[in-house]
Design brief:
Largest sheet: 15 strands, antiparallel
Number of strands: 28
Structural class: alpha+beta
Number of helices: 14
Mean pLDDT: 95
Low-confidence stretches: none
Distance between the termini: 50 Å
Length: 594
C-alpha cells in the first residue's frame, strides 16, 4: 500500500535529506547532494527500488514519533506485545562523507527487531555488488560506494538482493547502524561514533534554534518551519532547494509531477525576509551571496532556478522504470521550466537585494552594477508576455503578477538610489519606468466591472498571486481595487476553506490535463491580505487552520487535498514553510503591538 505523503518525516545533514515513514522505512535518499541520484527510491515505486527499514518483527506502524527538542533528530517509538523500543534517526552534519545513523534502544521488556537494507543506485535502476570487508558490508556500483556497519556488530545475511538482519534488544540496550556513502574510487572515510554524533547533532540544532529572535505567538510552529528551511539549505553555498523530492504528484494518478530539488529565485525575497525577521542574518547573507553568484552574467540569460551550487543546466528527463508515487507518472528529474521566460524573477532579485541592504547586510561591491544590468534588460523586455509565476506550459501571456514584479524591480532601484545617492544610476529614468508599468497594469489588468485584478491582461481568470499587490507596495491595502481583488480571489478560488492558485478549469492556461489541490502558500497569502485589509481575526482563523494541516512532526507539502484530507506535491516544501513563518510573524507582531 502506498504510504501517504504526510506519513513521512525528514532527516538531513544540510547537503541532502531522507524521508522516513511511520513504518520505519527510509524510502527516499539522494547521495551525496539533494539533486544526486537516489539510492532509496521506494517513494516513487516500490521496495525493489530501494529502501531501508528497521522495525520490530511483525510491526507495521509506530506508536508515535517526534523530533527531539528543536532538532532534526527523529525519535520513533514502537509498542509491542513483549516490550517497547525506540529508533533514533538522524544525519550528522558532515565533515566529508554523508552518514545516516539509526540507533535502536530498548525501553521496556524484550523486542525482536528486523532490518532490511535494499540499496538501488540511480533511482532504483542499478543493483550494486555487495561484499564483506573489515567486518562491514560494502555495496559498490559505478561511482557509488555505501558501507553498512553496526555497533555492537549484528549478524547480517543476503536475501533477495537485500542485506537483512535480526536481533533482540532489552531495556537499556542500544544497537547503532551507520550507513556511509563515498565515491567508489576513494578510500572509505573515517568512521563516525554514532552515539557521540547523536549528542553533537542535538547540541548543534539546539544552538541554532536558540538563535531564533521571535518570541511571540505560534513560536513552536515557527521554529519547526525554520528548522525545515535550514534542513533544505545546501550548506556549502547557502542555496535553499524548494523541496528534497521529485515527482510527488499535485494530483494522485496525474501527470503534474515535477522535480523541486533546485533553488528558485522567486523564493528569494520571501526566504530572506523570513530569515531576517527571525534573527538569522548569517543564513540570510549566505542566501544573498548564493543569489549573486547564481545570477551573475548576461541579464538576458537570467534563469528562474539554479542548482544548489548555482548550476544552470537542469535538463528534464523521465524515468520510465519508476511507476511513480501512487501510479502518478511520469517520474521526472530536472525541470524544463528552467528554459522559460518569467518576468517576475527580475523583480524578486531586485527586491531581495534591496531587502538585504535595508537589513544592514554589507553590500557586495559588484552587486549594484549587476542590478543596473538587470534593469537595463528589463526596460527593454517588460512589455513581452511570459510563462509567469506558475510556470505554465501553455502559451505565453501578459500575466499581471509578472508586470507587478517588473514594477517592483524599478521601484526598488529608485528606493536604493534615494537611500544612497552616491551610487551610480538614473533615478529619474527608473521612476519613469515604474510609472509607465504601474499605469499599464492598472489599465489593462484591472476589471472595473468586477472590481478585481485578473490573472492576465484581458482575461476573466482570477489568480492568487494578485493577493501580493499590497504586500509588495504596488497599491496600498486600503485601495478599493485591492480590497475588491482580495474579496474576488477569496470567493472565486476558495475550495473547502483553502485557496487554489487559479481556476481548476484553467487547462488552457497551464497547458496540462487534470487538476490539483489547494496551493498552501496561496492560503497564507490570503491570510496576509486579510490582515493587511483590516480583517485580523479572519486572518488568524485561516492561519490556525493552515497550521493544523502540518503532519504529526510539523511538516507541510506543496498542496493539500481538502476532500481526501491529505497532503500533495513535493515534501516538505520550502514555499509552504516560508509562508507559514511570514504569516505567523506578521500576526504575532500585531498581537505584540496590541
Amino acid at each position: 500500500m502506498t504510504r501517504r505523503i504526510d506519513d513521512y518525516a525528514l532527516i538531513g545533514d544540510l547537503q541532502t535529506a531522507a524521508l522516513v515513514g511511520r513504518d520505519g522505512s527510509i524510502d527516499w535518499l539522494c547521495l551525496p547532494r539533494f539533486d544526486s541520484s537516489a539510492c532509496f527510491a521506494a517513494l516513487l515505486g516500490d521496495e525493489d527500488d530501494g529502501h531501508w527499514r528497521i522495525a520490530p518483527q511483525g510491526a507495521t506502524t509506530c506508536a508515535s514519533r517526534r523530533y527531539l527538542d528543536d532538532s532534526l533528530v527523529l525519535e520513533t517509538l514502537w509498542e509491542t506485545r513483549t516490550g517497547t523500543v525506540k529508533v533514533t534517526d538522524f544525519m550528522p552534519q558532515r565533515d566529508r562523507a554523508p552518514d545516516v545513523v539509526r540507533i535502536v534502544e530498548g525501553v521496556r521488556g524484550r523486542v525482536e527487531m528486523s532490518a532490511v537494507l535494499r540499496l538501488r543506485f540511480d533511482y532504483g535502476s542499478i543493483v550494486p555488488w555487495v561484499r564483506r570487508s573489515e567486518g562491514h558490508r560494502v555495496a559498490v556500483a559505478g561511482p557509488d560506494a555505501v558501507w553498512l556497519r553496526s555497533e555492537p556488530q549484528v549478524k547480517t545475511w543476503g536475501q533477495q538482493y537485500a542485506t537483512c538482519s535480526s536481533f533482540t534488544v532489552t531495556a537499556g540496550e542500544r544497537v547503532a547502524f551507520v550507513l556511509t556513502w563515498h565515491p567508489s574510487h576513494e578510500r572509505r572515510p573515517a568512521l563516525v561514533d554514532p552515539f557521540e554524533s547523536l549528542e553533537h547533532s542535538l547540541a548543534d540544532w539546539r544552538e541554532w534554534a536558540g538563535r531564533c529572535a521571535y518570541r511571540g505567538p505560534y513560536r513552536d510552529t515557527v521554529v519547526r518551519s525554520l528548522i525545515t528551511l535550514k534542513a533544505l539549505t545546501y550548506a556549502p553555498t547557502g542555496g535553499i532547494v524548494a523541496a528534497p523530492t521529485t515527482s510527488l504528484p499535485e494530483e494522485i494518478g496525474g501527470v503534474r509531477n515535477w522535480d523541486y530539488r533546485a533553488c528558485w529565485l522567486r523564493d528569494s525575497s520571501l526566504t530572506l525576509g523570513a530569515l531576517l525577521a527571525a534573527g538569522y542574518a548569517d543564513e540570510a547573507a549566505a542566501w544573498r551571496d548564493w543569489l549573486l553568484r547564481a545570477v551573475a552574467g548576461d541579464p538576458a540569460d537570467l534563469q528562474i532556478m539554479y542548482g544548489p551550487a548555482g548550476e544552470r543546466r537542469l535538463p528534464e528527463t523521465a524515468l520510465p522504470w519508476l511507476r511513480g508515487y501512487a501510479d502518478s507518472a511520469p517520474v521526472r528529474i530536472g525541470n524544463a521550466a528552467v528554459e522559460q521566460f518569467q518576468l517576475d524573477v527580475y523583480g524578486e532579485v531586485m527586491d531581495t537585494l534591496h531587502l538585504a541592504r535595508e537589513a544592514g547586510i554589507p553590500a557586495e561591491r559588484h552587486a549594484w552594477n549587476l542590478q543596473l544590468s538587470l534593469l537595463g534588460f528589463l526596460e527593454s523586455h517588460w512589455r513581452e508576455p511570459d510563462e509567469g509565476l506558475w510556470e505554465v506550459r501553455g502559451p505565453r501571456r501578459h500575466f499581471t503578477h509578472s508586470k507587478v514584479m517588473a514594477w517592483v524591480a524599478a521601484d526598488r532601484a529608485v528606493r536604493t538610489l534615494e537611500a544612497d545617492p552616491s551610487l551610480p544610476g538614473e533615478p529619474g529614468r527608473w521612476r519613469a519606468l515604474r510609472d509607465e508599468i504601474h499605469a499599464e497594469v492598472c489599465d489593462r489588468a484591472y476589471d472595473p466591472g468586477r472590481n478585481t485584478f485578473t490573472q492576465s491582461y484581458g482575461s476573466a481568470e482570477l489568480d492568487a498571486a494578485t493577493l501580493l499587490i499590497p504586500r509588495v507596495g504596488f497599491l496600498p491595502p486600503d485601495d478599493p481595487r485591492v480590497i475588491g481583488t482580495v474579496d474576488a480571489v477569496r470567493a472565486g478560488l476558495t475550495h473547502r476553506g483553502l485557496l487554489r492558485r487559479y481556476s481548476p478549469d484553467s487547462g488552457a492556461v497551464d497547458g496540462l490535463p487534470g487538476r490539483e489541490g489547494a496551493f498552501l502558500v496561496c492560503s497564507f497569502w490570503l491570510a496576509d491580505a486579510l490582515r493587511m485589509t483590516g480583517r485580523p481575526a479572519e486572518a488568524r482563523e485561516l492561519f490556525e487552520r493552515l497550521a493544523a494541516l502540518t503532519n504529526d512532526v510539523g511538516l507541510l507539502a506543496e498542496e493539500y487535498d481538502p476532500v481526501a484530507r491529505r497532503q500533495l506535491g513535493n515534501f516538505p516544501q520550502a514555499f509552504s514553510h516560508i509562508g507559514l513563518v511570514a504569516t505567523a510573524l506578521a500576526l504575532g507582531g500585531d498581537e505584540t503591538a496590541g
